[in-house]
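Pipeline run #58 for the internal structure catalog. This entry was flagged by the ingest filter as a single-chain record with no existing model, so it goes straight to prediction. Upstream metadata was stripped on purpose; only the residue string is passed forward. Reviewer on rotation: M.T. Logging verbosity set to normal.
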Amino acid sequence: MKKVLVTGSNGFIGSHMVEALLRNGFAVRCLIRRSSDRTWLSGLDVEFHEGDLRDPASLETAVTGVDWIFHLAGCTKASSREAFMAANAEGTANLLRAAARSGNRVRRFIYVSSIAAAGPDPGDRPLTEEDPPRPVTWYGESKLEGERITQSFRDRIPVTVIRPPVVFGPRDTDVLRFFKSVRLGFIPALGGKDSWAGFVYVEDLAAGLIAAADSEAAAGRTYFLATEGAFSWTEFGRCIGRSLGRRAFRVPVPKPFLVGLLLFHEAAGRLRGRMGILNLGKYPEYRNRFWRCDASAARREFGFQPSVPLKEAVDRTVRWYREAGWM
């Protein structure tokens, strides 16, 4: 039985990753902070290891005896570039150093990055892995630095970098805001115009991460994992509306109003000591309208094939939100 270590295991993507690994017969060790909420891991047959990516000493035993490491932990909301770098770059380096020093041979290190590390697409076509990265936010810069650090270890540990686009599904709290807007009858067009993105359902992403870890061809490579095709946020919103049984209309949010909205949410986040997903640092992402990616390399090289059509994925997500009382 292969033993795997999952960082960020108590989060949205991480908890689905743990469940997918267990379904596939893996022994799972979860790296988790003492103060972390373990709600989504409750009742699962996993081993917990308390540690922190900022504390190298706590990682030594976490990586001992594992075959694969799925590094999903990271910072998506922070008030400074330094905070993003400390979590997404230095934290990754600490984990890789521990893995490289361990007595056992780690067979694959999977670093879950983001399309933010690549930046927006040029507008006339989706991004491919061959496009030079040009991140537009501190978050994107920190994830790209995490990618570079990961690839710098590839002579000592087989590594694979995965860049998901917009990830949605049960337990997610970020795209939930968009679902709630549609429930109220409007599809926000940030910046006043429609925009396009790649999407991936969380269960398809988890399956793709396992397939990448098990593929020799994926060693040393970087991939996008996304549902086939790209969709505008208006199309995605209308799909949500059909699932909710609500008619929703596209509502332009002009740039001056958007900036004011982001400033308000950032100020509120600073007051409560916890930055939210809406903040001024995200403005460059909203200003760029095209965030599409081509996942054909992953399909060709290790057989990545999303199994949940977009409509069914949205239906499952809406059903879970309703049952959980989140809508």
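catalog note: The mean pLDDT is 94.
catalog note: The domain at 3-172+198-227+291-307 is CATH 3.40.50.720 (Rossmann fold).
status: ready for reviewer M.T.
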